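A reminder from the course coordinator: this example appears on the midterm review sheet, so study it carefully.

Given structure:
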């Protein structure tokens, strides 16, 4: 009886703690512009909240994780403002790998420079207020540059953070694995922001039922977490629609796999892989435009793409 009461108590504490974390994330996202204006050095509470939920879940499932490990996992300085979304297990044992430190730091720096190049020399030349003065080809070039600017910038920071983690003796989770070589949207999310993808899988998709309750419920379980993923980036409609867009694409892929539909492999068997890579890149590039621009500017941009 005492054990049952303790279990109920731990569950109540866990649920309340997670609810508080979610509330903190929502408030931060809702008023992020004010937090960034008046609290310049405030850590990203959205990342901090997700890491906190991961720690609370680990403690609830295996109540042996040291508090100092949890605090280090949440407050490790290089990760305060950006990912990856680590877990307590990444900080339980020291794993020194000095040979990879310089390689990670140099790769991260090179990617940041490439991202800056895309931003300054291509994207900066796009003016939403003067469509008639911009050739349509520049909009297409800008769409591709936008995809690579996001990738190089985010992946570059991730490599720097992982390198600093190795320097301190911690093996932080990998975050990117050549995502633009993915042959499907599901593979893209196994390669893009991998720590976030695994977080969504473990703490949203699987608890909702995953693929265990039929294909229709699986599609629902794909769309809803991706919508939450979009809202996590910001409480604006273009972020939410970006997340739902990817959720719908994942659901369509799931339906096609369920019914054995493989049109590319059927009609272009010799070129199936490069064609699928190209299709996936085009779909993600369209998504990044929705992610980058508010809806009014996104509509303007789409008009620019077809203004030839």
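Designed residues:
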């Amino acid at each position: 009886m005492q054990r049952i009461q303790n279990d109920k108590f731990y569950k109540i504490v866990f649920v309340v703690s997670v609810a508080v974390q979610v509330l903190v994330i929502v408030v931060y996202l809702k008023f992020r512009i004010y937090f960034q204006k008046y609290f310049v050095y405030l850590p990203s509470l959205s990342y901090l909240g997700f890491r906190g939920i991961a720690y609370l879940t680990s403690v609830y499932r295996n109540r042996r994780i040291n508090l100092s490990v949890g605090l280090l996992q949440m407050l490790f300085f290089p990760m305060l403002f950006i990912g990856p979304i680590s877990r307590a297990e990444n900080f339980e044992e020291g794993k020194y790998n000095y040979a990879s430190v310089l390689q990670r730091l140099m790769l991260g720096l090179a990617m940041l420079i490439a991202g800056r190049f895309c931003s300054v020399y291509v994207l900066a030349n796009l003016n939403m207020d003067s469509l008639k003065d911009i050739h349509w080809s520049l909009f297409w070039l800008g769409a591709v540059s936008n995809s690579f600017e996001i990738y190089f910038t985010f992946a570059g920071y991730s490599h720097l953070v992982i390198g600093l983690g190795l320097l301190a003796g911690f093996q932080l989770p990998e975050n990117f694995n050549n995502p633009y070589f993915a042959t499907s949207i599901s593979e893209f999310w196994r390669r893009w922001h991998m720590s976030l993808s695994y977080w969504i899988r473990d703490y949203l998709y699987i608890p909702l039922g995953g693929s265990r309750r039929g294909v229709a419920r699986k599609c629902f379980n794909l769309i809803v977490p991706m919508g939450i993923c979009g809202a996590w980036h910001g409480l604006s409609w273009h972020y939410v629609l970006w997340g739902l867009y990817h959720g719908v694409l994942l659901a369509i892929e799931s339906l096609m796999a369920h019914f054995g539909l493989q049109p590319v492999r059927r009609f272009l068997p010799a070129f199936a892989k490069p064609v699928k890579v190209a299709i996936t890149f085009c779909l993600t590039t369209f998504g990044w435009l929705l992610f980058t621009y508010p809806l009014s500017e996104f509509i303007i941009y789409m008009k620019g793409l077809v203004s030839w």
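Residues 93-176 form one domain. Residues 136-168 form the longest helix (33 residues).
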